[in-house]
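// run 5 | inverse folding | seed 20
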């Protein structure tokens, strides 16, 4: 096998979700879009072998509340990995930057402080059209990242 083929094979093997417990926190703000993210994420988790009863999906009001729920899940030590789902659409004020920056930084901090992988699929987009164009694929990507990183973290410990 060539180097890139070996890497691809290793990545495929790391996408086995059997026996993993995944927590999902979904922001309800821009609900239609975040629900599409969640549907795609859950479907991909199941396709990767994560049992439905090992997926816990909760909702919070918005992106700034996502890290609080992620932290509570991480504190429980019941999860192999976590997923953050949300959608922040640029408006006419500075609020977009505040929410995007603070939620992103807080999610990273929760992961580092608790040594748990968190797939951050909080979309930060210019408009609703961009959000819809990304929602399904980013939901699936988040599931794959969560499974791969959960397996990697298990191997590293």
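// decoded
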């Amino acid at each position: 096998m060539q180097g890139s083929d070996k890497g691809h094979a290793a990545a495929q093997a790391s996408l086995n979700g059997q026996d993993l417990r995944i927590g999902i926190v979904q922001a309800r703000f821009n609900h239609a879009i975040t629900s599409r993210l969640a549907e795609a994420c859950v479907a991909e988790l199941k396709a990767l072998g994560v049992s439905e009863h090992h997926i816990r999906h909760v909702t919070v009001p918005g992106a700034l509340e996502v890290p609080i729920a992620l932290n509570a899940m991480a504190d429980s030590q019941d999860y192999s990995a976590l997923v953050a789902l949300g959608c922040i659409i640029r408006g006419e004020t500075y609020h977009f930057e505040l929410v995007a920056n603070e939620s992103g930084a807080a999610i990273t901090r929760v992961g580092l402080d608790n040594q748990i992988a968190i797939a951050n699929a909080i979309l930060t987009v210019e408009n609703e059209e961009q959000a819809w164009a990304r929602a399904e694929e980013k939901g699936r990507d988040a599931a794959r990242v969560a499974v791969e990183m959960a397996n990697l973290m298990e191997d590293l410990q």
